[in-house]
TrEMBL record:
GO terms for cellular component: cytosol. This is HAD-IIB family hydrolase. Keywords: Hydrolase. Pfam families: Hydrolase_3. PANTHER family: HAD SUPERFAMILY HYDROLASE-LIKE, TYPE 3, PHOSPHOSERINE PHOSPHATASE. GO terms for molecular function: magnesium ion binding; phosphatase activity. InterPro entries: HAD-like_sf (IPR036412), HAD-SF_hydro_IIB (IPR006379), HAD_sf (IPR023214).
Length: 154
């Protein structure tokens, strides 16, 4: 069977424990691409947190973000596939989480939205290399459909 495409996750797969692409991975990816195999990134991360790694690998193809909810070209930024959570559904989930005081992150328009600037929000933003927007109660009344909601109950 001929390999035509490699789609790699990032954390714990493409990236090492220091959140870097190892020299070995770079060489293997370059060999694969040079032999005609398409290489892309497929991850739960935000598009903007993938782009620096795609640039490092000189990828000029679509990247898969938010666990498949968004496919966007690495270079032109053209959106090729866009399937956010329906706004009505997202608002119901946000309300459910608010009533139970669950921690929640919403990813809207490639922006990380949080209720408050908690230690976890700060840690995650640093880990992903992005900034967050502290929304307060406005988080529970977002106006645009999110690509992803991350909820922690404990």
């Amino acid at each position: 069977m001929e390999v035509k495409l490699i789609a790699s996750d990032m954390d714990g797969t493409l990236l090492n424990d220091e959140r870097l692409i190892s020299k070995e991975n770079k060489k293997s990816i370059r060999r694969a691409v040079d032999s005609g195999i398409i290489f892309t990134i497929a991850t739960g991360r935000m598009f903007k947190s993938i782009v620096p790694f795609a640039e490092e690998l000189e990828l000029d193809i679509p990247l898969i973000a938010y666990n498949g909810a968004l496919v966007q070209d690495a270079v032109t930024k053209e959106v090729l596939y866009d399937a956010p959570v329906e706004l009505e559904t997202a608002l119901a989930i946000l309300d459910y989480c608010r009533e139970r005081n669950y921690y929640i992150q919403a990813y809207v328009n490639d922006t990380l939205l949080v209720h408050e600037a908690s230690d976890f929000a700060k840690m995650y933003a640093e880990f992903a290399g992005v900034e967050f927007v502290e929304m307060g109660k406005d988080l529970f009344a977002i106006k645009r459909a999110p690509h992803k909601l991350l909820i922690m109950t404990g």
